[in-house]
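Q: What does the predicted 3D structure of MCE family protein look like?
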Amino acid sequence: MERRAHAIVALAFLALLGIGVVVAGLWMHHGRQPGLIYDVVSPYSVAGLQEQAPVRFKGVRVGEVRSIGLDPRNPRMILVRITVSKGTPVTRATFAELAPQGVTGLSYLSLSDAGTNFAPVHTSTLHPGQIPMHPSFLEVLSRKGESLVNQSNELALRLSATLNASNRRHLAQTIRQLDTASAQLVQLEAALLPTIKALPAVVAATQSTMQESQSMLKNINQLTISATGPLRDVGAAARSIQGLGSSGEKVTETLNYSTLPQLEILTRRLNSTTEALEGLSQSLQRSPQSLLYGAKAPPPGPGERGFHGGGGS
């Protein structure tokens, strides 16, 4: 009887527990807000992403992955159907990326927004809106790594072609020449060492010369200041000489334009008077009586009274 009682109690407990789990599940299912359906279109691999994987928008969980499959219109593309809670700002600038979940090898879907276009993406159950997939960090690193490996191989091939036997001989010769040049530099350093040691004395002498030059410049400056007074006197004298020159120019203009023309007229009159006096003197010498009787009349000409022709008498 006791065993049957324990079995009945155990069965009743299990039944109650099952009913509680079903009720809690139904309550949670009906309490969850219905989400919006979107299709994430990916040309890249979605390895590590599984159904019911979380969907996060900038780190905040907003939904989950419902299904993963190939696009029937383009088998090269992958369609990841997700359910996102209402209020999630899915715009035309929203894109998806795969992000790893720790070290488990699994991934979740991360939604981000570039912030360039805030127009919302319209979606429905029959025609879900599409969100583009961007390459994940591992995808970019893988592609860059492959390109880097290819470049490294090409560099190795070029180095192998460059370092042939002839170039290796030239390289060895260059190294020997560098060794010789290094030895010559050591010798040059040893030869320049005394000169370098003498540089402080030269610098000191240069500083002394500069100080003496500064002192000389100061003396020249004082001499210039002292000579300012005499230079002022010389300037005044120059201005006086300039005034005297101006007066001389005025006197010269007076002589040229006033006095000299009058002297020329007087000289001409004196010459005329002298010529008249000279003629009078000659006339008196020829006939002194003309001073008392006047000048003798000239002989009559043709047609005048008393004119005698050359054929008469």
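A (community wiki): The structure tokens above were generated from the sequence. The first helix runs from residue 2 to 31. Strands lie at 35-42, 54-57, 60-70, 78-85, 94-100, 107-113, 129-132.
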